[in-house]
Write a structure and sequence with these properties.
Elements (H helix, E strand, L loop, with lengths): L10 H15 L3 H10 L13 H8 L4 H24 L4 H17 L12 H7 L5 H18 L2 H19 L5 H17 L1 H9 L8
Helix pairs in contact: 1-4, 1-5, 2-4, 4-5, 4-6, 5-6, 5-9, 7-8, 8-9
Length: 211
């Protein structure tokens, strides 16, 4: 198996990346902003999700940019750190993909907020740009087209999450298998976090956004 030939001296760096990315990923822009500026917990309103879409539905566009900025930074910083650290051994893409998954995991299950977080869309969407820009273009373009055609953010997110591993496999086939494994896990996590949305989509009760 491919993992039997993996250098054991990379275990500690990857453990460090996992911890840093998870803890930073657990910082939630929607929760911080709703509590700081509105004195409310976004998880107690709307769909109960601590994410960008629910924040927008509940509080509107004010402070929306701050939510986006926090969620992008808390993902980008560990991904950049991992890319640099693993780049020293020629594995920058693997490191970035690894960090991206754990940042998404932290966003979904934040240790600071009783493990009740968001659905990882913004975290995953930010991380992909630092893994491969071509994959990012495909993923984001797919998301945008689906949302514009259907007005379902959840459907766009789920399909973009499904497309992510396939785009990675086609465009980055020269990367180590660990990179693809982490991208598959990232896409699977995003889809899993939308399980309730998927049920509502099937029933025809999912909310649409206004364009």
């Amino acid at each position: 198996m491919w993992y039997s030939h993996y250098p054991w001296n990379l275990i500690l760096p990857y453990m460090l990346i996992a911890v840093v990315s998870y803890l930073m990923g657990g910082i939630n822009g929607a929760i911080i902003t709703s509590k700081t500026f509105y004195g409310k917990d976004i998880r107690e309103f709307g769909s109960g999700n601590a994410g960008l879409t629910n924040f927008h539905r509940v509080f509107g566009t004010r402070f929306l940019a701050l939510v986006i900025a926090i969620d992008i930074l808390k993902t980008v910083l560990p991904v950049l750190f991992a890319g640099w650290l693993m780049g020293l051994s020629g594995r920058s893409v693997e490191g970035s993909a690894f960090a991206g998954f754990f940042a998404m995991l932290g966003h979904a299950y934040p240790p600071y907020y009783k493990f009740r977080g968001g659905k990882t869309v913004m975290a995953g969407g930010a991380a992909v740009w630092f893994i491969d820009w071509r994959v990012a273009v495909i993923v984001w373009l797919s998301f945008a087209i689906i949302v514009l055609l259907t007005r379902y953010v959840s459907l766009g997110s789920v399909l973009a999450g499904a497309i992510y591993p396939f785009a990675m496999a086609v465009l980055c086939s020269n990367q180590g298998p660990l990179a693809l494994v982490m991208v598959v896990l990232s896409g699977a996590l995003l889809i899993f976090r939308h399980k309730e949305n998927i049920k509502r989509l099937v029933k025809g009760t999912e909310s649409k956004i206004k364009l």
